[in-house]
Amino acid sequence: MLEADALDDHRRALRIAVLAKQVPVPDSLELQPDGRLRRDGLVLEMNPYCRRAVAKGVALARSSEGSCTVFTLGPPPAEDVLREAIAWGAGEGVHLCDAAFAGSDTLATARALAAALRREGFFDLVLVGQDSVDGGTGQVGPELAELLDLPFASGARRMRVAGNALHLGLEHEDGWEEIEVSMPAVVSVAERLCAPCKASAEARASVPPGRIRRVTAARLGTGPWGEAGSPTKVGATRALHDRREATVLSGDLASQVATALRMLEDRGALSGQADPQAGPPVEQAVVSTVMSPAHRWPAVAVLLQPDRPRAAAELLGAATRLAGQLQGGVLALLVPPAVGPASADEEVAASLGALGAYEVVRITARQAGAPLAAEDVAAALARWAAANHPKVLLAASSTFSREVVARTAAALGAGLIADAVAVDVIDGTLVARKSAFSGSLLADVTCTSPVQLVTVRPGALTQAPSAGPPALVSYLGADQRGRQQRRLLRQDGECDALDRADVVVGIGRGVHPSEYAAVEALSTVLGAQLAATRKVTDQGWLPRYRQVGITGRSISPRLYVALGLSGAANHMLGVRAAGTIMAINADASAPVFGLSDVGILGDWRQAVALLTDCLRARTMARGIGKAPTQG
Ligand SMILES: Cc1cc2nc3c(=O)[nH]c(=O)nc-3n(C[C@H](O)[C@H](O)[C@H](O)COP(=O)(O)OP(=O)(O)OC[C@H]3O[C@@H](n4cnc5c(N)ncnc54)[C@H](O)[C@@H]3O)c2cc1C
To answer: What pLDDT does 559 receive?
Structure first.
């Protein structure tokens, strides 16, 4: 942080706004049997990402001799995050606090915050957290940017001011991007941009009341605010309980390993050992009737990125099923590739037609040479949707598509359900299932708007079969506003494989990189992918996209093997959906044992060597798997 700040080149005092949200501390979350959150005993704090946004906002305001104002929307206790920000060095706090804001979804929240920001005057920079650890939507930032007509950049891990521009290093789920963006802009900050803002209870209590202003709904205009202005509705919810066996074995390691393998076998955790190249199951029962154009509406539209073929197959699989239920057709909107040339029309028509699309609308840049930013695609998409009235628009939960869809939703005033794990049509209405509170709760969410937008978590849906005829191809021109210049894009191509892996071996700080060969031997015999804790990715021992947990990925393998990791809640929340968890740890008091089904107590090195040998013998005996031939 200091290094980046030292390079800042301020030509004027910056006016900075920071949005900070109050969230429940994950460890204090408890759900009642009806799936509702237990309010008593709930500990609230500033969202960890927002802590970085505040710290960065204060640092930039100080170094440019400017100002930093922090905004929050929430009930009276949310004032505490403003106190903390001011104790850390922010100039003042603005609290949007009114019963009329109750029940706000992300769009209603973004609308109220946009109105408050406009009311306060001009800001050079609006900083928001990349995500929030409760809802986990990451939508408010791009929706706000759309409503304020500002450029948006997601996941800043490096930030440097150069005159009127920001040089940003952006952390994506599958890579790294460096861009230059002109101010004013909205930027969401990654958790590791800088050290977090944290102030003691005494420091928070000593903030003078005059530094915080309360703003009511009436002061922001006529609305509609809160629930009335929210196009998404949360329906049935249910709690997901951790029902792990928590059996911790003891005795000599060889007998522990033998018992553990028997237990895994009994649980079906070893059956159908995956071929890591195989991909997910292909959906079988799909309506494949070729419909006449008159029957293709209402359309289920799907936003596709050409560099994400697996996500495209999943989205088209879901869209084909939904279109069958809605008696409509599937239309694919294809953005140009992030790098390299676009495929020929015939190739696109054949490949996406085979996956169920009857038409492919290729979104193309109107001005040759310059790439399309998410805001450019969103503007074209909103125009297209307003003219063509699709019933549903599906997209993957990637950094690019999330911004496109959030901006489109804000432009249309439509409901957006982020990061769904399942989609269905019930009584003619799209219902998306979304996990909240880091996977402890599943909720059915619907949209009341005529077009319903959903981003879907990669790996959550089945792929489409290859059967349909070539699609029609048409074009949609998009204008480049040129508010962002990309300097570098580096994509890591393997995160798909981790999301889909049947078996995952998770590595913690107890496994040194010099010993990874031993872990790889186990992974090979299991057909497993490697995942890691944050301590591992922070050290740069494994790439960031392999991090699992509250600020990493959520995965749902059949078997998760936790090696040399303590089992912190922040990590284990990312593997809640695993079928079976086996932990190997030398410390009997490690929390991971309470959150696993099978525990081996001992040094991972010996346990992994024994496990690898036993599994090799097992696969060879069965004549399956890929055990190397013995020399
Ligand atoms: C806001 C926030 C977000 C976070 N998000 C994430 C996240 O997304 N994902 C994440 O993983 N973490 C996250 N963390 C960090 C998390 O809280 C833990 O600090 C981290 O997961 C611990 O990593 P670890 O288990 O590798 O290391 P440690 O806690 O240091 O555990 C190492 C373990 O290895 C065991 N061990 C050592 N040597 C051996 C051996 N030879 N044989 C067997 N066992 C051995 C030890 O007994 C110990 O239990 C977050 C933290 C914060 C504050």
So the answer is: 96
